[in-house]
Amino acid sequence: xxxxxxxxxxxxxxxxxxxxxxxxxxxxxxxxxxxxxxxxxxxxxxxxxxxxxxxxxxxxxxxxxxxxxxxxxxxxxxxxxxxxxxxxxxxxxxxxxxxxxxxxxxxxxxxxxxxxxxxxxxxxxxxxxxxxxxxxxxxxxxxxxxxxxxxxxxxxxxxxxxxxxxxxxxxxxxxxxxxxxxxxxxxxxxxxxxxxxxxxxxxxxxxxxxxxxxxxxxxxxxxxxxxxxxxxxxxxxxxxxxxxxxxxxxxxxxxxxxxxxxxxxxxxxxxxxxxxxxxxxxxxxxxxxxxxxxxxxxxxxxxxxxxxxxxxxxxxxxxxxxxxxxxxxxxxxxxxxxxxxxxxxxxxxxxxxxxxxxxxxxxxxxxxxxxxxxxxxxxxxxxxxxxxxxxxxxxxxxxxxxxxxxxxxxxxxxxxxxxxxxxxxxxxxxxxxxxxxxxxxxxxxxxxxxxxxxxxxxxxxxxxxxxxxxxxxxxxxxxxxxxxxxxxx
Length: 489
Hints:
Elements: H1 2-26, H2 56-59, H3 62-78, H4 80-93, E1 99-102, H5 107-123, H6 126-140, E2 142-149, E3 159-164, E4 181-182, E5 185-187, E6 193-199, E7 213-217, E8 221-225, H7 243-264, E9 269-272, H8 280-283, E10 304-307, H9 317-331, H10 337-341, H11 349-386, E11 406-409, H12 418-430, H13 436-442, H14 447-464, H15 479-488
Antiparallel strand pairs: 1-11, 2-3, 2-8, 4-5, 5-6, 6-7, 9-10
Helix pairs in contact: 3-4, 4-6, 7-9
């Protein structure tokens, strides 16, 4: 009976456990993931104190942009490294300016448009204005250009590009951005800019606050900036992350200089480890200043020594600290340290090429962005006006913008070792892994212009009887003749 009771009890216990399992399975278990960066602790509380969840337009409010522009302009105007980085970036990206190449089947039309547009670009100083716009992106975050007419231009097409600072594109009284308007810009319901508000004068001009503005169609305004966040319509200076680092570099340099100057103020120090003599007051007083005569020999009292203060500045870590800070500053521009320093001491060929690859990719990306955002609207406005000029400036009228295929050539990137680059280029051309158009484009040249010029040179060389050493022999010498000639020799 005892054994039967045990089985009965075990059966009831097993049945109760089986019946409770479905209810346990019905309630899902909660898995809580944990990220160290999401934990707020006493150690990191101050570091994350300024983190927020503002939208892009709210974060880049007019007041924030105004403060950052003022500080970026001050730093660039007073810091050699900041000014040099800004100028170098603009010179690398824009250089001597873009050159237009048309790709339509009509060769005569291509040549006419290219010639006239390049002449107009030189008349309005397009390259310099593009460099100024690129420098404005660094120190202001954005650049604005207004397409207008200027009768003073020495070209039939009197289209001009008027640059205005970001301060002047604003809507007085608009504090909070909306879905249809951000400071200085009005959008349609699809998010396309409709008009820009241009203050009648710069807010920094002396006088009363500016409240008047003109409405300018978005078709006549070029807004050049780098989009960093979805929904962003205004930008902050590109140099913003580096501003605290420039301040640290300035303070450290001034501290090192002050320490060295303080030590240098003491020409000599008289000291002794001996107990003071009876006539100590007649010998010398502490911190007494003694005038020294040049080329003088003297005798010190017994137990006294003369020496100099050891400045210990700049320390051995000074150069390493400067390079470390500048490397971090240049990183936000994808610029290698040797370009930011304008000094390649200690670099070898491989290191220089490896560091420059990232920077050159940045240059190509920025050129494509500038061609799409800035140059395309300029070319379109220029073409529309050029077709209205009488007598005709172009060989054809009614050119459809959608049918106009074109590209822009920029300055090429100089190679550190021209011989190695020329050899690699020759191998690529001989193995059919590249084209002459691509190789010339890398150097900022038009391949058609290169071939035409080369044909002229070869024709003139043949006319003057000058042998072309680049051409291979037309009739190679047979192998048999070569062996016979060797036997006779």
